[in-house]
Amino acid sequence: xxxxxxxxxxxxxxxxxxxxxPLRLRAVLSVITLVWAGAATVLFVVLGVRDGGALYWALxxxxxxxxxxxxxDLRVIARRSR
Length: 82
What we know:
Layout: H1 15-18, H2 23-51, H3 54-80
Helix pairs in contact: 2-3
């Protein structure tokens, strides 16, 4: 009888050889998000100071949270790519 060898969770065919990591795309998207959300944060803070509207401050805070999240994601990507 032939012995069945375990595949250890590997996909069939040549998938591991040709698979590409999504880290580069993830890094590009994080940089774009960091730039746009950073610019939006500055804009909303300036509008909040000028007009005194609570909505501008709230939007600025949300954008700042997005900036921090994108920066943390870039840090994780840098660590994983080493």
